Amino acid sequence: MSSSDPKPGPKPGPWPPTPESAAMPPSSWAKKTGFRPKFSGETTATDSSSGQLSLPVRAKQQETQPDLEAGQTRLRPPPPVSAAVTNGETDKDKKEKPPPPPPGSVAVPVKDQPVKRRRDSDGVVGRSNGPDGANGSGDPVRRPGRIEETVEVLPQSMDDDLVARNLHMKYGLRDTPGLVPIGFYGLQHYLSMLGSLILVPLVIVPAMGGSHEEVANVVSTVLFVSGITTLLHTSFGSRLPLIQGPSFVFLAPALAIINSPEFQGLNGNNNFKHIMRELQGAIIIGSAFQAVLGYSGLMSLILRLVNPVVVAPTVAAVGLSFYSYGFPLVGKCLEIGVVQILLVIIFALYLRKISVLSHRIFLIYAVPLSLAITWAAAFLLTETGAYTYKGCDPNVPVSNVVSTHCRKYMTRMKYCRVDTSHALSSAPWFRFPYPLQWGVPLFNWKMAFVMCVVSVIASVDSVGSYHASSLLVASRPPTRGVVSRAIGLEGFTSVLAGLWGTGTGSTTLTENVHTIAVTKMGSRRVVELGACVLVIFSLVGKVGGFLASIPQVMVASLLCFMWAMFTALGLSNLRYSEAGSSRNIIIVGLSLFFSLSVPAYFQQYGISPNSNLSVPSYYQPYIVSSHGPFKSQYKGVNYVMNTLLSMSMVIAFIMAVILDNTVPGSKQERGVYVWSDSETATREPALAKDYELPFRVGRFFRWVKWVGI
């Protein structure tokens, strides 16, 4: 080497160089944890309902990468395991490239550690970024063992592989278990939803002045119609394993119609049959409107306005609106009602991890178990004379009681004793529910218009259930045509409910999603067999009589739990959007607040503190049509406007739809539902098999593109 050659410079170090100054703390929680929001329907291998890693573990798994511009260390997510699916659309993650080195420096390439996928004994897919199953920091990846809790949470996304297997579903949508498993899981599925099926008629029939025998007949009719409509829906509707029944969405308008001023003069059996016929007429018209909405393809257009930020407050407002009915009725007999509430909370929360033969009996059967125990305790108290008062007969109406001593204890005897109902003894052993059993329906345009609006809200509720359940049990979400077809069939089945006289429409029960996530049963065959059993039970009159004899305080206690669950299931739709976004927080907050405040204004308008109302306090929110602030020369218009604007779900829906579709926000921030398209159905046979009509019926309707795959 000659002396004129330049001296070699210092040996270049690794690239990117280590910052000289101490790293500044991350400027936000998202940078600190590496959080990346997702679309509704996207997934990764670790996003299963039973194996989601906690946030600190995910943060430890992520590789660090210096950020020269910010002067801090940022976290980079690990490379993807497989292509992610966004509600039926494949979205492969792209690797982030490091910034180019400055001129004059030598860059040392850094090789990414290979990503390994492992499956443990429970079938949980583990991910590791380093050798021997270690993550980027050298720590082993924590995976849930057999003794850990399975989280019954619907994940935000799906893997491109078998979804049901990743979610630890025991059986997928098209699986056909043996006869014994089908029978067992079918009974389990319907028992877990017992409260949703029978509580609505136990509320509306006494409000109409119906007798114990009529309560039993309506309960049997509800079981019969629920079984028939469920079979129709799993065969010709969405084809998802969703039970159809009397939804709480129809309860508020039914109570508003029942408490209309024109019915206040009726009494006894006349009252029940006349109001039931009015309800039948309103339900038939509103359901026919829903059927036209679905089968005409208009629902496909409405779907563009319906997103998680709309569904969440609308469904939540349904549950919150009954706060005036729940505990005020429980207070009629606190020692029975409070025990019922405490038991269902203990079973559903504190004992939810206890399994018997791999079945979480306390979580799945929280409602029937708590009902049985409380009912038995109340029976013992009744038989031992705890609610027996000398010279007082609980079967005598309060208005006919002369003794001051007996009048003091009449309320306690009526609500605490379990022998005041004669529904079981008066019910026949066999009874076949038939159409028009209460008489020819009466059609009133103002009540029918109210039901038409309610049918739209019921459709919004069902859309959220379709999307959530499809992520659990199907290969991909349905197409817009399948959703329209399902909404159209719901309208048709609600027409059947109106003809048979159930008092409410028939729609997809929101509790389906929670039941599927808990029982891990996604086979439509199980739901279909359970529906057949439900039809058989409906023909046994004693079954309806037994269910109708549930004490009213216990019904109110169970409703407190069911309405709270309904509210929570509605708000859980926000998991598909960026729930921490200030835009979404404000929209949901405004929708929920005004859904309670605006109806309160209508309900309290014109009522003085000393008003002597003819209805119990828990029915006062539903008599607004007689004293609401909307007053014009047209009484029918007054009735419609005062009734609709006094319903929480209507106000929440109006505000959420307007705000979500006018306030700027990205699709990712809004969590826009992404449905499958016809091209995907043609390309993937699994999607077509999930939603195509049976018996090759679909080939005759291929020209109807807006209600098919």
Could you describe the 3D structure shown?
This protein is mainly α. It contains 28 helices and ten strands. The chain has helices spanning 29-33, 55-61, 163-166, 179-192, 194-207, 212-236, 251-258, 268-295, 298-302, 308-320, 326-330, 334-350, 361-364, 366-383, 404-416, 423-426, 445-473, 480-500, 512-519, 524-539, 541-548, 552-571, 582-604, 635-644, 648-662, 667-670, 678-683, 685-691, and strands spanning 41-42, 63-67, 72-76, 84-86, 89-91, 116-119, 125-128, 157-159, 244-246, 506-508. The chain is 50% helix and 5% strand. The N and C termini lie far apart (78 Å). The strands form four sheets. It has a four-stranded mixed β-sheet, with no helix packed on it. Strands 2-3 form a two-stranded antiparallel ribbon.
Give the rounded overall mean pLDDT.
77
User: What share of residues is helical?
Assistant: 40-55%
Strand order of the largest sheet: 1-8-4-5
Q: Report how far apart the termini are.
A: 78 Å
Helix-and-strand structural type:
mainly alpha
User: What coarse outline follows from CA principal-axis ratios?
Assistant: globular
Report the sheet with the most strands, covering strand number, pairing sense and barrel closure: 4 strands, mixed
If you compute it from the alpha carbons, what radius of gyration comes out, rounded to the nearest whole angstrom? 29 Å
The number of helical segments is 28
Q: State which percent range the strand residues make up.
A: under 5%
Number of distinct beta strands: 10
The parts where pLDDT drops under 50 for at least 5 residues are 21-30, 38-98, 104-167
Biased composition (Pro residues): 7-19
GO molecular function: transmembrane transporter activity
Main location: membrane
Family: Belongs to the nucleobase:cation symporter-2 (NCS2) (TC 2.A.40) family.
